Amino acid sequence: MTANALAYLRTSSAANVEGDSAFRQNDAVMGYASRTGINVVACYWDAAVSGADPIETRDGFAAMLEQAAQDGIGLIIVEDASRFARGMIAQEMGVMLLVKRGIRVVTASGQDLTDESDPSKVMMRQIAGAFSQYEKAKLVQKLKHGREQAKAKSGKCEGRKSHAEQNPKLVKEARRLARKSPKTGKARSLRQISEELAALGFLNVNGKPYAATSIKNMLEG
């Protein structure tokens, strides 16, 4: 009998939401499921959510736990331990919660994060969690230092490219749609602009219409 599972993806910053992180995670998870004969029923994604946040406070993870309870699914697949949690406290509290609910979390490499039977494996998981938390803190510190140096040198610091820099045609079309009608004097709402852009084939990296905040940035950028 084929086992059913739920997939979980997490991107930690807004910059990663429109990048390839979610695609990479999904490929890893689905690859593992295919190799092991597991049927992934649904995939949940927490975008721009810190790995230090408790799992039950994340909208995507909370919704996934609801489906797991309703459908009797006892397996969750993640790309690696850092997608589940980045920080020992969040990791261990999450493991305790899932073990209590009878749910296993397995990584795309086959590691069972909820296996409590081997003390040495538990210790290694905790060490890995602490190291992941340390690496994240060092990366944040390094990026902050780099921004400060760039700002001191040039008076400004470049961040993520704007929509206009990434896709000039998209922004040009969005601004055209934002103009008031010469007949009625009315302008389209941000949602209407997004819908019309989608109809013209302009979608975000997830294949969905742009959010209203993205449309606003296009018009103001």
Provide a short characterization of the protein structure.
This protein is of the alpha/beta class and 221 residues long. The chain has helices at residues 14-17, 21-36, 59-71, 81-84, 88-101, 119-154, 163-166, 168-178, 190-199, 212-220, and strands at residues 4-11, 39-47, 75-78, 104-107.
Structure overview:
The protein has helices at 14-17, 21-36, 59-71, 81-84, 88-101, 119-154, 163-166, 168-178, 190-199, 212-220; strands spanning 4-11, 39-47, 75-78, 104-107. By secondary structure, it is α/β, with parallel strands linked by helices. The protein has 2 domains: 4-132, Resolvase, N-terminal catalytic domain (Rossmann fold, 3-Layer(aba) Sandwich); 163-220. The protein has a 4-stranded parallel β-sheet, sandwiched between helices. Helix 9 packs across helix 10 (212-220). The longest helix has 36 residues, at 119-154. The termini are far apart. 24% of the residues are buried. InterPro entries: Resolv_N, Resolvase-like_N_sf, SSR_resolvase. Residues 4-154 form the Resolvase/invertase-type recombinase catalytic domain. One of its GO terms (molecular function) is DNA strand exchange activity.
